[in-house]
Amino acid sequence: MNLDLTAQTVKYFPVLKPFEWAALLNPKNKECKFHDYIGNKRTKQAVLTLIGSAFGMNYDMGDRMICTREMHENIALVSEASGGKTDFWRRVRDTLELPHLEIDGSESGLTIDKLVERMETVLDDAGIPLVPVGHMNGEDIYYPPPMLWFIDEVHNFAKTPSGRVIAQRLLKMVEGKDRTLITAKGRFDCRRIGLVIATNRWGELDAAFKTRFTKLRLDRHTRDDLVQIVQANNPKFPLDICQRIADYTGLARKAITFAEWVRQAQSTHGITLEAAVEDVADQMGCVGKGIDRLGLDALRALDNSGDGGLSQENLVTAIGCDVADWKEDVKPQLGPNIFHGPLVEVARRHVITAEGRTILADIERSLLARA
């Protein structure tokens, strides 16, 4: 099929000269959406290189060059839970400034036809109506303009029959010789749709995802990264306050929220920053070394269980949370993080490690000293 840039599509794309889009890809320039991104330097550079190839896709429309920003590499953002995948995606999205569709893999009742309906809405809002460009074998043929699809928690598609159908259709969309999506509405040529998926369970995905997507790993922020993140969002905080917030939280998203609460506590109650940090730690249940009360309860329960450990079901019951909270919030605290190695070994049962017992003892002493 020949390239068919409709009048609406041509109108949509701005003219960008090479030096203009090069500035958007240089993290030293404030125009770059990754200018203030802290940590994961290699991954940041890798995604900027991929975006650069998209900016390099220019078409001569006779009187001007059109930069359509087509992503020809499909990206998989991989990290632990709360590892910053969504923030990273937003920076990719805001750099390319394309129409985009955001999909939650855990959403119930999702079908491929509903996704197409959402795509139509997104394109209508962008002023690029989705209209057939041809007809073949009883099907309307569609050629969507350059756009992005973001699928968060893509591993959840494997849990339901309809989700597995969506996963297979997504793979067809990125298959080298295919790149088509067949729906009740018609057949879609998906060569100009860039897919970005996010998961914290890369190992559970169909093997085809691993050959058709470029994996970009987001490592957990270091303690220094966290301190810089808190400082960047709170320039009036002294260094020791930023360090205490990093030590309490252990995760960027949690550290940012913690710092916001500290500012509110200080202004509302007229207390010192030091007192506000301790108040917020108590409110949020943070006990130190990136562990909260539920994480502490889990370590205590496993310590009391001895060398035999506990099954996931018994452990979740013991600490009073549900399985979703365990997987998304508590379990990441007990794996390797910026303060320690694995505190819990997981096979058929969860067993506290020697380091886990050491960390537990340190926290218990710290809590006694504060009491």
Topology:
Elements: H1 7-12, H2 18-24, H3 41-55, E1 58-60, E2 65-67, E3 75-78, H4 85-96, E4 100-104, H5 112-125, E5 132-136, E6 139-142, E7 147-152, H6 161-173, E8 180-182, E9 187-189, E10 193-199, H7 207-212, E11 214-217, H8 223-233, H9 239-249, H10 252-269, H11 273-284, E12 286-288, E13 291-292, H12 293-305, H13 312-319, H14 323-334, E14 344-346, E15 350-352, H15 354-370
Parallel strand pairs: 3-10, 3-11, 4-7, 6-9, 7-10
Antiparallel strand pairs: 1-2, 5-6, 8-9, 12-13, 14-15
Helix pairs in contact: 8-9, 8-10, 9-10, 9-11, 10-11, 12-13, 12-14, 12-15
Q: What can you tell me about this protein's structure?
A:
By secondary structure, this protein is of the alpha/beta class. It has helices at residues 7-12, 18-24, 41-55, 85-96, 112-125, 161-173, 207-212, 223-233, 239-249, 252-269, 273-284, 293-305, 312-319, 323-334, 354-370; strands at residues 58-60, 65-67, 75-78, 100-104, 132-136, 139-142, 147-152, 180-182, 187-189, 193-199, 214-217, 286-288, 291-292, 344-346, 350-352. The strands form 5 sheets. A 5-stranded parallel β-sheet has the order 4-7-10-3-11. The chain is globular, with a radius of gyration of 24 Å.
